[in-house]
Specification:
210 residues, alpha/beta, Rossmann fold, Helicase, Ruva Protein, domain 3, 2 domains, five-stranded parallel β-sheet, P-loop_NTPase, Hda_lid, DNA replication protein
C-alpha cells in the first residue's frame, strides 16, 4: 500500500495528478470515485502517508469529535463517503467537517464508488459544497496495468510466472486489484499444494473454482 507500490496508468493518472497538487486544491475537499477494486484505497493510503491524515467511515463522524480529527494533520480521509448520505446525523457531521476544514485550511479526501451527484444527499448545503468540490474518476485497470499488477504480486511472493500465464489471467480474471491479490494468493497456495510451478492449466483450474 506504499507509494512505491502504486502503478500509475491511464485509468488512475488523473487522480494521481490531483493528489500531487495537494495542498493547492481549489476546494477543501477532493472526491476520488470508481468501482470497487480500482485502487481508490491504495491512493488514499498514499495520501495518508504524505499527510498523516486519519481515516474514518462516514457513519463514525460525530460533530463533537470533529475538531480532533483536523487538530494534528489538518487532513482527513473519509472512506466510502457515499454510504453516509441519506442519514441526517452523518450528513450534518460531514457538513460541519467540511466547513471546519475550510476555516482552518484543512483538507478532506473522500472516496466513493460514484460521483457526489449520485449520492442522494438530502442536506442542501452539503450537496452544494460537495458538488463544487473537484471529483476525479478512477477506472478499472486496463490490460497493461492488470498485467503489471500481477507480475508485481507474483514477484512479491518470489514466484516466477511465464508471460503465457499472465496473458491468460488478464483475459479471464475479474478486472480489479482486489481480484488480482486474491488470485495470486490462490495460485500460490495451489502450486504449493501440488508441488508444481504455476502454469496455464493450473491457473484455469484455480479460476474455475473462484
Amino acid at each position: 500500500m506504499g507509494a512505491d507500490d502504486f502503478l500509475v496508468a491511464p485509468s488512475n493518472e488523473a487522480a494521481v495528478a490531483w493528489l500531487d497538487l495537494w495542498p493547492n486544491w481549489p476546494a477543501p475537499a477532493l472526491v476520488i470515485f470508481g468501482p470497487a477494486g480500482c485502487g481508490k484505497t491504495h491512493l488514499a493510503q498514499v495520501w495518508r502517508a504524505r499527510t498523516q491524515a486519519p481515516r474514518v467511515e462516514p457513519g463514525d463522524l460525530r460533530i463533537e469529535s470533529l475538531p480532533r480529527l483536523l487538530d494534528e494533520a489538518a487532513a482527513v480521509v473519509i472512506d466510502n463517503a457515499d454510504r453516509g448520505t441519506g442519514d441526517a446525523r452523518t450528513e450534518r457531521a460531514l457538513f460541519h467537517l467540511y466547513n471546519l476544514a475550510r476555516e482552518t485550511g484543512g483538507h478532506l479526501l473522500l472516496t466513493s464508488e460514484s460521483a457526489p451527484a449520485h449520492w442522494g444527499i438530502k442536506l442542501p448545503d452539503l450537496r452544494s459544497r460537495l458538488m463544487a468540490a473537484p471529483a476525479v474518476a478512477v477506472g478499472a485497470p486496463d490490460d497493461a496495468l492488470l498485467a503489471a499488477i500481477l507480475v508485481k504480486l507474483f514477484a512479491d511472493r518470489q514466484l516466477r510466472v511465464g508471460g503465457d500465464v499472465i496473458r491468460f489471467l488478464v483475459t479471464h480474471m475479474e478486472r480489479s486489484f482486489d481480484a488480482a491479490r486474491r488470485l495470486v494468493a490462490d495460485l500460490d497456495a495451489a502450486a504449493l499444494a501440488a508441488r508444481r510451478r504455476i502454469t496455464v492449466p493450473l491457473a484455469r483450474r484455480v479460476l474455475a473454482k473462484s
